[in-house]
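Form P-L/3: holo structure prediction, ligand flavin mononucleotide.
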Amino acid sequence: MRILLSILRMLPPELAHSIALNSLQLLYQLKLISIFFPQRFSETSFTFKGLKFKNKLGIAAGLDKNGDFINSLGALGFGFIEVGTITPKPQPGNPKPRVFRFTDQEAIVNRLGFNNKGVDHLVKRVKGRKYNGVLGINIGANKDSMGQKRINDYIECFQKVSAYADYITVNISSPNTPGLRSLHSKENFIPLFKAISHVRETENFLNPIFIKLSPDEHIDVISEITKAIKEFNFDGVITSNTTIEKSNLMLQSKVGLSGGLSGKPLLEKSNELLSLVHLREPELFKIGVGGVHNKESFNMKLEKGASLVQIYTSFIYHGPKIIKKLLN
Ligand SMILES: Cc1cc2nc3c(=O)[nH]c(=O)nc-3n(C[C@H](O)[C@H](O)[C@H](O)COP(=O)(O)O)c2cc1C
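OUTPUT (holo model):
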């Protein structure tokens, strides 16, 4: 396993990502996942709004944007899986290279820009899944959609996925879609939240709705949003997305690199946001994500108020064995 991960690390990140996920899929199809990655972990199950999470560790959005690997990721033993971010129309994302590894710090900078195959593709995948654990679907807007059109994008995705989602995440925090983070300002999030609230009713969607937040916003902005989340009866937040601040990256020449930083250097910043939200809104449900790479950082998220935890970057660096490391 270690050798395989070392080889993958020598390849361009997106190619390595694709090879790794397709290999996992193959192992799943050959029914070999439980032999290569036996699920011997101690699990604490957790129930929220009738959803039973078999443990508190999930895979974060962005790893399986199109729902192509739900069964194989599920077979690894995650307590829940979040797919997406998905947009109404397929889109290629930003020009390559757009994913950069910082191996010494177990960090990634990405500026993928919501590359995905579109919501109709995802719905087909989700409908045909065999995985029967909790599945969240993360929705967004196409790059060229502005104003009301941008709101309509979220609504279209919501309508198309709501019959298949155990929860829906509204992603307003990707730094790689121009202007998306302006949805953190009141004049923009209120019309979006109104529209989401309305479609929740018309679709009779009774499962949770979470808002995924950026760690780069001012505390007052976060307070306004979390207040509104409660007023609109949404269910919680996911803290956090990647950060545009790269001062924690040791390789100073790369500090000016555009994109969102994830992995170990994000831990402190995403924890600060989590603590802040927990302090202001202790009742609000929280999923903690950002920089989790060992048992200590996993527990930290729970101590700071998260009920569930997600990972992305540490899964890229350590592979499936990270699940056991975090849960045992
Ligand atoms: C390559 C890459 C792509 C991502 N794509 C998405 C995405 O499409 N939607 C989203 O909400 N978050 C996305 N994220 C953010 C992750 O879900 C997570 O919030 C962030 O990476 C922090 O967690 P980590 O430090 O465990 O990686 C992406 C992260 C990475 C590294």
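COMMENT: Residues 60-62, 65, 85, 99, 108, 110, 112, 114, 138, 171, 174, 212, 241-242, 262-263, 266, 289-292, 311-314 surround flavin mononucleotide (CB under 6 Å).
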